[in-house]
Amino acid sequence: MKKLIPSLTLLALLAAACSTPPISDTGPVILASHSILADVAREIAGNTVAIEPIIPDGVDTHSYQPTPQDIARISNADLVITNGFGLEPWMQTVIQEEGFSGTVVEATSGLQPMMETQDETDPHFWMDPILMMQAASNIEKGLSSLLPENKDLYASNLGAYTAELKSLDEWIRQVVSEIPIEHRLIVTNHHTLGYFAQQYGFTVAGTILEGTSSESGLSSKHLQDLINLIIAKEIPVIFIEPTDDANIAEQIKEETGVRIETGLNTHSLKINGTQISYLEMVKQDVELLRSLGE
Fold it and tell me: Which of 62, 84, 90 is nearest to 213 (CA)?
């Protein structure tokens, strides 16, 4: 996740030649790095301002590189909400090199990252609704600073959304209580559920890829170790996402008889063409994990 963007200035010049319409003709331009953060920001902002994601739904968040149009949008934005925790290494380059004069709100400010290795941070904080409460508060502060005339509304909306996050947390704990502790073993394509597992008493037993990104590598030793673990622990299912390459999971299935569940969704709010909310996404994933208790 340390790719650099070639010729940012050239890309920006190309973007200037394109007729990219502004997000809002009447209000400030507010962008969020991905759709999950945009959804949370909209819950707080209500209908006071338009908020759009930079990375489109259905696109791999980890491998994404900004287009010339994206660079132009960011450089002209009044407020950019970033994920942090190493998810968008290209963002800082754009902000520093392309004349950005707006405000950056890092959703993960004040949160403690999980470290998968000495050098690799897990960016998937949003899979823990408790951590999302802090992120929502950070977003509210950024919106209130930009549009102080709406600060009372934003504070009220934050309170209501925090209550929804608390309700979601309580529901998750109820569902998890029905899954025997010894069955709370998760295998995914890459490390997407670390924060969730830590909060709700699961163990990430293994991953197909060797890191927190869909761009992570895979060694033959790692693959064999995972196969041996699935057999030894009698893990019944591997959870992968629609954007993941299922070929390796199929290979593991041939070796172990494990079931492959392709319905996990941790990065996109568009499922089978239907737009959902962050809260709905988490609920759908938890419903999927119920199968571990069967």
Answer: 62
- Do 92 and 197 belong together in one domain? no
**Amino acid identity for residue 221 in this structure:** K
- Comparing CA positions, the residue from 6, 105, 19 lying closest to residue 65 is 6
Residues 6+ positions from 202 with CB-CB distance below 8 Å: 176, 184, 185, 186, 193, 196, 289
Give me the domain span that covers residue 252.
180-293
What is the tally of structural domains in the chain? 2
Domain of residue 165, CATH code: 3.40.50.1980
Tell me, yes or no, whether 204 lies in a domain: yes
Give the total residue count for the chain. 294
**Rounded CA gap, 176 and 200, in Å?**
7
Closest by CA to 100, choosing from 8, 185, 186, 203, is 8
Is the entire prediction scored with pTM above 0.90?
A: no
Residues 202-233: tens digit of each pLDDT: 999 999 987 545 455 567 888 999 999 999 99
How many CB atoms lie under 10 A from the CB of residue 21? Answer: 6
Q: Are residues 192 and 237 in the same domain?
A: yes
Which contiguous run of DSSP H or E holds residue 185? strand 185-188
Q: Is residue 3 part of a domain?
A: no
Q: For 251-276, what is each residue's pLDDT tens digit? A: 999 999 999 999 999 998 988 889 99
Distance CA 200, CA 184 (A): 10
User: Tens digit of pLDDT for each residue in 102-125?
Assistant: 999 999 999 999 987 677 899 999
pLDDT per residue over 164-183, tens digit each?
999 999 999 999 999 999 99
